[in-house]
Each structure stands twice: as structure tokens, then as C-alpha cells.
TrEMBL record:
Protein name as catalogued: Cyclic nucleotide-binding domain-containing protein
Organism: Candidatus Caldatribacterium californiense
Domain Cyclic nucleotide-binding, chain residue ranges per copy: 20-36
Pfam families referenced in this protein's UniProt entry, alphabetically: CbiG_C, CbiG_N
One annotated GO biological process: cobalamin biosynthetic process
GO molecular function list: methyltransferase activity
Highest taxon of source: Bacteria
InterPro entries in the cross-refs: 4pyrrol_Methylase_sf, 4pyrrole_Mease_sub1, CbiG_N, cNMP-bd_dom, CobE/GbiG_C, CobE/GbiG_C_sf, GbiG_N_sf, Precorrin_MeTrfase
Amino acid sequence: MTVVIVPCVASSFLEKTILDFFGEQALLWSGPPREAFEKLWEDADLFVCIGNLGIVVRFIAPFLKDKKEDPGILCIPGSGDFVIPLCGGHEKGVNALALRLARFLKAQAVLTTASEAFGVFTPRELAERLGCALEGDRECEKAILGLLARGERVPLLVDDPFPLLPFPGYDTRPLTGPLPQTCLVLSERLFPETSALFLRPKTLAVGLGFRKVHDTEHLVACIRDFLERQGFALASLGELVSISRKAKDLALLAEKLGVQSVLVDEDVLRNIPAPSPSPCAEKHLGLPGVAEPVLLARGYTLLVPKTVYPEVALALGRKPWSRRGSLLLVSLGDGANTITLEALEALEEAEAILGYRAYLDLLPPRFQGRALHRFSQMKQEVERAKEAVRLARCGS
């Protein structure tokens, strides 16, 4: 990530503090501010501008083209009191970065995007929180953002074996039947001829048995074809697994596909029966098989048995998927004007907020959408506590 810090006003202490936050990935621009955008717009991932918001807007206006291509823009006034995302709030993760930088500076992040106003998460933010890839129709993503901005609920359809996690702004339910036109789907499976948007958990692992790799592209093509034929998304592939002697070749394949390579010691496999025994592996390695046993050795569920391609045998497994939840107790004081920075940080990270209605009504407006459980009567402390523990155990 390339970060360019552009001082539009002199503030050496603030410049140094921001440099400390970003470390080696940051460049402090020393020339005229306008020239920073002229020379580095195409190469920078983020501009952090120190100065008046209006001046920064005038500087960047001629260069703005498309939010998928433009760099992120943060503006920090010379006082250092506020961190304001101007561009790339969702697309480039600038909103999340603004929150972290604001904490570092002991400043206030000013988030103006609609989803933050309602206290909900965009599909990209959900993907980041769940460790998923986001894949699917760009127009569907726009439609989902529109529903969230209007305060309407978005269908979140969850496939087996993943748990139903409650998120503000979403109607979470099991995936059954045809997909609605506009929805978010948590699944490893492919759904041809659909315009839905998908959260792809990195839970799939391909076990490989092969000889010396002479053509990396051939093996990559085999893996792609294998997943597609079995109806699984390449975006959900998290690991390639094989035996230790294949470390170098497996690392090259994994790098091509952008996944992890995992090795299993051959001695471990000698005691694991292969569902589809391999005479070749028995003859050359003294093993009952490779593609399936390496997955079983890792404790993965075997989804697709060994399938033989030219020069390689493939099997598909699923890694266990769980999300560790957390439970925090937060005091709101007497409302938004006295709430501590630590309490605000906890609320920013929260996916569900439970409490007595009279207290939750004191929350700043941007958190109201996350107050999913408002208890209206006193003496419900035990009930509130049990529900909070249940949600945390589910992964919230």
C-alpha cells in the first residue's frame, strides 16, 4: 500500500504522528500540494491531506474518475481533531482506516456514508469481518447499498453448514429455494445465471497427488475445472494440500491461485486409509493415496472424492469454519456527550448492542441501527445476559 501524506498547511507534529501511524508505506510530500496529485494520482493507494477540507476538494476534483479506480482520500484539519474520509470510504476501506487513525490521533472520525449513518455494515465490511471474499454482480451491490441507505432490510441467505449470524440491516435466514433478485448470499457453491452478491468463505481445500510439475498452468487449469465441475466457487478456495516432498511445486501453485500451501508429513499418511486407494502412490511412495488422505489428516470433511486429471489427482475438502465472538460490557454514562473514547471504540466494533431501552436511546444516532435487542422492562438482567452470551457463542 502506497500512502502519500500531503501537507496543505504547515503542521510538523501532525505530519510526524501520521508518518508514525503508517510507517514505511508512507511518503511525506514536500512540494506544492497540487503537484502531489498531478504526479502520484495513478500510483498512490491513499492520500492523507492535512488542511482545510474545501482546499483539498478543489485540489482533487480534476482527477476524480471512478470510485473503483480512484485512490482513497482522507482529510485531517491542521488541528488534528477530525479524520474525514472524502473518497473510497467503502470501496477502498477508508472508513475503517479513518476510525483506526482517529484512535491513534485521539481525534474523531467523521463518517458521512449512508450505511454508517444507520449503523449497518456494507457487503464489503461484512466480507472483511467474516474473512470472506466478495464476489458477484456489481449492480446487485449497488442495489443492496441503496436498500441499506433507505433503512430497508437486505436478505442475507446462509448456506449449510454456516451459522445464522445476525447483522444490523440484514434479514438473515437459511438458503432454500430460488435466490431473490437482490440479496447477499454466504455460500461456497456456484449459482449459475444469478445476479446475487456472494460472501465466499475461504473454507475449501484441494488435496493434490502429482509427480514433478512441468507445467504449472496446466495444474492450475485442472484445479479451476475441478471446482467448476463440482459446483464450487474458486473464490472459496483457501488451501492446497499435499505431501512434504512437494513443498516447492505446491508453493508455486498456491501463489498462482492466491491461496495457502499446506504440507502433510508422509509418515502421518501411512496410518490413514484412502477412500479411493491409489496403486501409483503405493508403488512409488508406499502410501495408500495422497489427494484424499492429506485432507483427512488435516481433519477436513471430504466433499468430493479423488478425481483424476492428466498428471494430477484432486480431492476436495472443507475446513472447519467458526467465528469467535466477544462480549463487552459498556457504560454509556449519561449519553453521547459524556461517553468515553473506549466505550465508543467498543460500540464501533459491535455487531449487536443489547440493553435497557431507556439507556439505548442515549446512543449516538449512528449506533441506533445496531441496537437489535431493546429490553423495555426492568428486572430483565438475566434474560439480557443470556441473549448476549448466546450471540457471542454464535460468533457475533
